């Protein structure tokens, strides 16, 4: 080897020492630092966006619930007592709870079945199509359509002098109220309640239906399974927690409804919300001033049980949706 080659080799080996990291000299170098080394933005400012909702929930949910619980355990003089709870065992109150359970159960089951069938039909249309958009928009509106407006709509349609009632009686000889004016009694609540129960079921159950993966159906067909096998052994077991959760939500929704029933049933207190109204405005409950509070406690217990079961079913549903 020549002397010049030897010198070049020694010069090259002189630069093979350990690498030295230099601090960034400009903004572009600083951007390559790990994200963990940068200071994190505090989320306190972002939490201010929850303030309006928190105030709303506090004023219209937490405070009324606390007052209902408090008044149920105190008498008119403010002394603690459990005598108010004895009203829950009275025949009239038990009958009101039975009627509320009956209306809620019937409308929840019927609304859940009809809503599930609507969701199944929507699987055949495009998610961004006109039909799906219309059904989603209508469900969002009708699920909140209740109270006096809904009661008036049914009175004007199938009331004693309603449009449909008069048409059927004059043209076809069919009298909807031949056996009594059922629209203004507990059975008359079934149709109005279904009017908002079915859209609510569509809103809550449609995401679960859309969560069914096409690969599951393809795997079932590859293994020789039929559509009946797919729905009975694959889809239905997966959808069962979500369906039951939606069913409980519909039950709780009907059980706590007041405005529609108050507009239709003007006489008597045949369900629990109307019992509470009667206890608040009646002047014949001397010594039972806090009867409404004890009735509210009974409703709160039922609602807590329903919503706890609903939350448990929703948590189970989310496991396979992840």
UniProtKB/TrEMBL annotation:
Domain of life: Bacteria
GO biological process: transmembrane transport
Location relative to the cell: Cell membrane
Region (Disordered): 1-38
Cross-referenced PROSITE patterns: ABC_TM1
GO cellular component: plasma membrane
UniProt record similarity statement: Belongs to the binding-protein-dependent transport system permease family. CysTW subfamily.
Protein name (record): Putative spermidine/putrescine transport system permease protein
Source species: Plantibacter flavus
């Amino acid at each position: 080897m020549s002397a010049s080659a030897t010198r070049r080799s020694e010069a090259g080996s002189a630069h093979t020492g350990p690498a030295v990291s230099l601090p960034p000299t400009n903004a572009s170098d600083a951007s390559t630092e790990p994200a963990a080394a940068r200071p994190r933005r505090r989320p306190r400012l972002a939490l201010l966006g929850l303030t309006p909702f928190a105030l709303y929930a506090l004023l219209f949910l937490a405070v009324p619930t606390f007052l209902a619980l408090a008044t149920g355990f105190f008498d008119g003089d403010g002394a603690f007592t459990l005598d108010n709870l004895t009203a829950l065992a009275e025949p009239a109150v038990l009958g009101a709870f039975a009627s509320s359970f009956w209306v809620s159960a019937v409308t929840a089951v019927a609304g859940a079945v009809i809503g599930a069938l609507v969701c199944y039909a929507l699987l055949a249309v495009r998610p961004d199509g006109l039909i799906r958009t219309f059904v989603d928009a209508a469900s969002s509106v009708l699920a909140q359509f209740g109270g006096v407006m809904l009661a008036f709509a049914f009175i004007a349609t199938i009331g004693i002098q309603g449009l449909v009632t008069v048409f059927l009686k004059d043209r076809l000889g069919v009298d909807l109220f031949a056996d009594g004016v059922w629209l203004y009694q507990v059975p008359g609540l079934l149709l109005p309640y279904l009017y908002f129960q079915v859209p609510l079921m569509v809103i809550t159950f449609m995401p679960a239906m859309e969560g069914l993966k096409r690969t599951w159906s393809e795997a079932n067909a590859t293994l020789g399974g039929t559509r009946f096998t797919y729905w009975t052994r694959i889809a239905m077991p997966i959808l069962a927690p979500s369906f039951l959760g939606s069913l409980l939500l519909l039950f709780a929704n009907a059980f706590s409804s007041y405005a529609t029933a108050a507009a239709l049933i003007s006489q008597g207190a045949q369900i629990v919300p109307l019992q509470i109204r009667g206890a608040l405005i009646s002047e014949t409950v001397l010594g039972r001033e806090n009867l409404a509070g004890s009735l509210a406690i009974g409703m709160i217990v039922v609602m807590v049980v329903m919503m706890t079961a609903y939350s448990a079913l929703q948590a189970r549903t989310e496991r396979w949706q992840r």
